[in-house]
Amino acid sequence: MLKSILLFTAVVLLVTAASTGFALPPQEAGASKKTSPEQLAKAKKVYNLDCALCHGETGDGKTDIAKDMQLTLDDWTDPKTLSSQSDAALIDIIRKGKGKMPPEDTGRATNDEVKGLVLYIRKLAKDQAAPATAQPAAAPAAPAATPGQSASPGR
């Protein structure tokens, strides 16, 4: 009888844990977390040390080393690039590597640092300046003074 109760309890706990774990897609769950400026600064430092060489300082993927290695890297400055990627998928790619990209082992970055790195990478697209808008047309020149008329107002 005791085994049946324990088994039932274990099944209920597993079902509960599984159902709450999938309540939000990973990118929404990660987006709702607040990130402190210190966490972003740390993530930027990790990015600059381990990622920027290939992915570029801005994340556009257009670097000399990428060209030399004949790599086509995603442009993280484009919001569409990462929109279909979950945070968990990005963490997995960072941890395990992908193609010629080496894995980021736990000795170089903790799990929290890798999570911060994902948030930093997503922020690269958000930080891009909006395209320059057209400059307003120059104001029309003041009408030229006609002979016998002063150009100064009030006269």
- The name of the CATH architecture of the domain at 25-50 and 79-125 is Orthogonal Bundle
- In whole angstroms, the N-to-C terminal distance is 108 Å
Helical percentage: 40-55%
Question: What is the number of helices?
Answer: 8
- Which stretches of 5+ consecutive residues score pLDDT under 50? 17-32
The secondary structure category is mainly alpha
Work out the strand percent.
under 5%
Tell me what the structure shows.
- It is built from eight helices and no strands.
- With 155 residues, it is mainly alpha-helical.
- The chain has a domain at 25-50 and 79-125: Orthogonal Bundle (Cytochrome Bc1 Complex, Chain D, domain 2), CATH 1.10.760.
- Helix 3 packs across helix 8 (111-126) and helix 7 crosses helix 8.
- It is globular, with a radius of gyration of 27 Å.
- The chain starts with a helix and ends in a 29-residue tail after the last helix.
Attribute tags:
globular; Cytochrome Bc1 Complex, Chain D, domain 2; 155 residues; mainly alpha
Secondary structure blueprint with pairings:
Blueprint: H1 2-21, H2 26-31, H3 37-50, H4 52-55, H5 64-68, H6 79-83, H7 87-96, H8 111-126
Helix pairs in contact: 3-8, 7-8
Entry summary:
The protein is an all-alpha fold and 155 residues long. The chain has helices at 2-21, 26-31, 37-50, 52-55, 64-68, 79-83, 87-96, 111-126.
